Amino acid sequence: MHRYACAATIALFFAAGPSAAEQTDTTKLHGLALHGEPKYGAGFQHLDYVNPKAPKGGVVRLAQIGTFDSLNPFILKGVAAAGIAGLFDTLTYNSDDEAFSEYGLIAESIQVAPDRSWAAYTLRPQARFHDGSPITVDDVIHSLALLKTKGHPFYRAYYAAVAKAEAVSERTVKFSFAGGNNRELPLIVGQMPILSKAYWTANDFEKTTLTPPLGNGPYRILAVDPGRSITYQRVADYWAADLPVNRGRQNFDRIRYDYYRDATVALEAFKAGEYEFRAENIAKQWAKGYAGPALERGLIKKELIPHEQPTGMQGFAFNTRKPMFQDRRVRQALAYAFDFEWTNRNLFFDAYARTTSYFSNSELASRALPTSEALSILELFRGRVPEEAFPSAYAPPATDGSGHIRGNLRTAVRLWRAAGWVVKDKRLVNAKTGTAMVFEMLLVSPAFERVVLPFKRNLKRLGVEMSVRTVDAAQYEKRLEDFDYDMTVMSRGQSLSPGNEQREFWTSAMAAVPGSRNLMGIQDPVVDELVEMVVGAPDRQSLIHRTRALDRVLLWGHYVIPHWHLQAFRVAYWDIFQRPATPPKYALGFDTWWVDLEKSGSLAARKAGMSKEQ
Questions:
Q1: Could you tell me if 489 and 317 are in contact, meaning their C-beta atoms sit under 8 angstroms apart?
Q2: Tell me: the pLDDT tens digits for 79-100?
Q3: What is the pTM of this model?
């Protein structure tokens, strides 16, 4: 499942569209879930994780690292501005307290074939673009065509199985799906951002642009300072503002993103009051970086907000397109040089748990030993997957945290020797070709260098030469798109209902597509088959068992050296916000927060009082 920033609505009552014969074969539902029934019943007034009476107003400033050069987020070219998704609505809205359920937004109703071979969406008559023009069936059909033929590789892969979109009435569009058993497809088309056919006929969709595009969402662009900042204004007459799923959301009148070249500078800017909200992802900064009078006097708040969101996988990713990384044993050996326990103790203040699954922090993660159901799936591939996947629980190499890892290094040498690599003149070389193991670690954040350099020192003891190169965001993005790296940091989030997006993450078909998210270049027919089994899972339990089997095969493929995860959001903010008492289980839900105008108005005086006390 892919989540695209969007607004939402309520009941999905079925409308006219497909033929009468087709209608008799469908069931009328008020909402649509991947498995089972949606949580919210017909006629609900608002989501459980919002304050429906949250006041509108206020200005919020946020920070981004790097730069941007485009206001077109749908293509591979350029670096899109932060927050740009707020300009575009989708057919449906994904709730943040369910595994995968959708409720209509641009669409007021949906009709789904019993076998999910097609889905028909009827559009709301009041749905409008920001220029006042109606959102039509032609806009929907044109949006699909643009994204499938000219969009970013993600969209081309995500909507590849949507075979056709056609008008069946003035307000109803029917999507037909290619052969196969993919229960997600009716929900996937619901996530599609709807673009103006008239606007994109007059403008080149395949080019980057700094001209604000025509949108239909809750925000429009107010000001652009290319590469430095972008400001969004809440649309005062937003057509969907009072739909039940939108009540209590999108409360800020204005949102500004300021860009910083360096994360350290960005933190100092936050403490100086240059922006108001920050999600922290560096443990050292969380532990020590916020100290000061503003924190002591409560002007800056720090909170850990627990969540039940799958934390996915972050790790050092091997580019298996490179010959030296094509042997699984070589990749496995390199993992023995990374000392997570020492890193966690000395750099992260023991803040993290080691990641041992591509679906960590969820019931989808493979267990210590395969369940009978998962084992029966793996048995289909015996002889084609590592034997360790059957009896053994995957665990990355571990240490006692002292920094003394001689035993791990000896294990690495044994694995390399079995793979045909030997130490010669203090260098690890391929015994057949004489090629030395020399590669580059590509980074985008200087803060990650302190994690990588101890790893580099351990590798040097083994005769491996790893250089470390940190580049700016634009160059980093370009090199990832072109697969121009040996090793890099991969972060792959997951949903509670993995499906269609797994094809882009792991399959052979995407390994050679520039810009795809198969960063490791995985080309394994077993992985391809398991992904299709996940996509075609007929019920929740089947999805769990198939995903666990896929997880085990990926883990024992040693495509990454796993990092760590945290089961909470770390947020710091200036004391101007309020938020609902009940947060969503699977998201931070910042779009449900609001500015306390009284606190915001007095903030300058409170800062001045703090300065006088000093």
A1: yes
A2: 999 999 999 999 999 999 998 9
A3: 0.80
